[in-house]
Amino acid sequence: MIIASTPTHAVTLLTAIVLVFAVASLFWWVMAQGARLAPRASMGLALVNALLAASLALHSLRGEAPHWMSYWASDVLSIAALGVLRAVMPTLVRGRLAWRSALALLLPAAALLGALPYSGDMRTETRVVFASLSTLSLMSALDTWRALRQRVSLAMSLLLSGPLFVISVLLLGRLIESLVLPGNNTDILGSGDFNIAWLWSMLAMNLVLNTTMAFLILAKLIRRIQRLTRHDPLTDVLNRRALSEAIDTEHARLQRGKPYALVMIDMDRFKQLNDSLGHAAGDAALQRLVEVLKPCVREVDALGRLGGEEFCVLLPLTDIAGAALVAERMRLNLEESEFLWQGQSWPLTASFGIAEAEPGDISADAVLSRADRAMYRAKAQGRNVVQALDA
């Protein structure tokens, strides 16, 4: 018995795509509200999928629902969905919404579509819609690729941003079709081979895109966990373990003729500050100290908290003279800084001990010990001074 194959209809495919978008929207909403997994990004992605589902659902009602609903609202919702995607994708890698550029495309497109008749030849409407969609998608792809490129390899950044580039090409294909084949039916409910293939592609890319976004959110969560394991929760500088690893790495380079120096820092009269103003004031003072010291630290340097009010700065490719200049600049900046707690002023100063690594140092602990002894010498000499200790 021969069974005739049933032709694939655009309406059937469109229904499937709407269902996939609706399920994806629910998934991202649960991630945002229930799991609290990157809530801002997850809510944005839930909105993207919901807007696309609503847009396609309204599109399928053309000829039955009012024109403003099945045409203008459908088109504007689709552009709004890609606008939200363009705004929310950067938050997956760098944390800032890119909403200005999204609105800059959405608002003029919505106004232009509102001025068009939506009757007879609608190629102009099609071109406005798909030009806006492809532009927003391409902007999202480029922005995501650039942000990822700073964090992962070229191959991985292309792989993760790839779905957005492919979607941009698919949307651009609809725009090109309306330009080079003006006699074709460019409506997505059309039964032409190009339209059916395009809908199948969109269904597949919808699944791939949402999977990719889930992976990006997971990667962001992993990066956040890694950061928490390496940074001090109060001051956000490196914790003792991470700083020790950085110093050990630099000490290994010492054998290849690359010097480094350490600056040990201990805030003066910290116990007195805690006793007088309270521990909350002490925490704020430590945060203020870090805020003052950071401008003196280069990108290649490492600032870390050893515990309590003690900090240390690793200065690669720096000798004792260079370390003394850095420490003196830190000391002066801190002395001239202002610290207010509940209207009460408190002078902030620190004692600084510096040491340069020597080829004969067996381990980084020897350098750290010299910097520590130099810092205690600074304390003994009246505080708020810089002291060095020779090997």
TrEMBL record:
InterPro entries: Diguanylate_Cyclase, GGDEF_dom, Nucleotide_cyclase, Rev_trsase/Diguanyl_cyclase, RhesusRHD. The chain crosses the membrane at residues 12-31, 43-62, 97-116, 152-176, 196-218. SUPFAM superfamilies: Nucleotide cyclase. Its EC number is 2.7.7.65. Its main location: membrane. It holds the Pfam family GGDEF. PROSITE patterns: GGDEF. It comes from Kinneretia aquatilis. The keyword Lyase does not apply. GO terms for cellular component: plasma membrane. SMART domains: GGDEF (SM00267). It is found in: Membrane. Gene3D superfamilies: 3.30.70.270. Residues 258-391 form the GGDEF domain. It comes from the Bacteria. It catalyses: 2 GTP = 3',3'-c-di-GMP + 2 diphosphate. The keyword Transmembrane helix applies. Keywords: Membrane, Transmembrane, Transmembrane helix. One of its GO terms (molecular function) is diguanylate cyclase activity. It is a multi-pass membrane protein. This is diguanylate cyclase.
